[in-house]
Amino acid sequence: MIYLCLIIVAVVMDQILKYIVVNDLGMMNSVPVIENFFYIHCIPNDGIALGMLAGKQTVVIAITSVLMAALGIFFFLFRKKFHPFLLCAVAFIVGGGIGNIIDRIRLGYVVDFFEFRIWPYIFNLADVFVVAGCAMVLIYVLFESRFRGVKKDV
Question: How does strand 30-34 pair with strand 110-116?
Answer without folding.
Answer: unpaired
